[in-house]
Amino acid sequence: MLVPAKEMLDKARAGKYAVGHFNINNLEWTKAILQTAQELKSPVILGVSEGAGKYMTGYKTIVGMVNGMMEELNITVPVALHLDHGSYEGCLKCIEAGFSSVMFDGSHYPFDENIAKTKEIVEYAHLKNVTVEAELGVLAGVEEGKKVEKHEFTRPEEVESFVNQTGVDSLAIAIGTSHGAHKFKPGDDPKLKLEVLAEIERKIPIFPIVLHGSSAVPKQYIEMIKQYGGIIKDAIGIPDTELRKATRSAVAKINVSTDGSLAFTGALRKALAEKPEEFDLKKYLGAAKEEMKAYYKTKIINVFGSEGAYKKSTIV
Hints:
By secondary structure, this protein is of the alpha/beta class. The chain is about 50% helix and about 15% strand. The chain is built from twelve helices and ten strands. α2 (about 25-40) packs across α12 (about 280-305) and α10 (about 240-245) crosses α12. The longest helix is centred in the last third of the chain and has 24 residues, at about 280-305. The two termini are about 15 Å apart.
């Protein structure tokens, strides 16, 4: 039932929209994303970090949960299950477990070593009809508890050689996005390096580009978390207007993780605070799921532009 990400990314690239990559961490997250995608007739990519994989017992468990949920919910839009920022070993495990897409993050290796390791993953993955994403450039911020201080923009002069030598299906680049909730301080005016994106597009035309670290860090969730007892610093993320510019260019996939955490946490705190007598977890976790659905809808419709991309799908 899962499909390789390549076919949906190629269609997105041609259609000038982006496929949303939303990270999952439990059943509620997964259900919220699948239902939203189905309602809006949009393709979607479920992202799993290696940390989330361990939390949810293992990659085979996740594959079983996603496939079972897709069948029970009668999901007919294209869905890919993707390893996010995977290690070499993690990619191999996910391919064997039944993931339809993996990202090998070799951005911390020297250029030639990144090429060599990525090529090995690509050759093995393609035998299994699994899509492979790679990365050039380094994003600052916090990912899986690891903090990266220095941002390194992708060098356009390297991308053509990298893509041709590795055979990779999509490429994550660094043009100003950042991992984590505290990307920028209030008062900052974050801008993507669209001129770098344009140069990369000239080097590898019609090739799917990916943006990581693209959460907007909505103010309403920062305020909701604080209002209901949480502690979180004020911050801002990547403006939706900047992301929409990118989707009209070469960007075919945009990763969002932090915003899901903020929406879930804010709604959960609110539900518990407003009904302190409630102990049925289905009710307060359900409230968090519905808040995530509402937020994902705004991203798919207003930012990614993928609503209605699969109009022939049956909605239930």
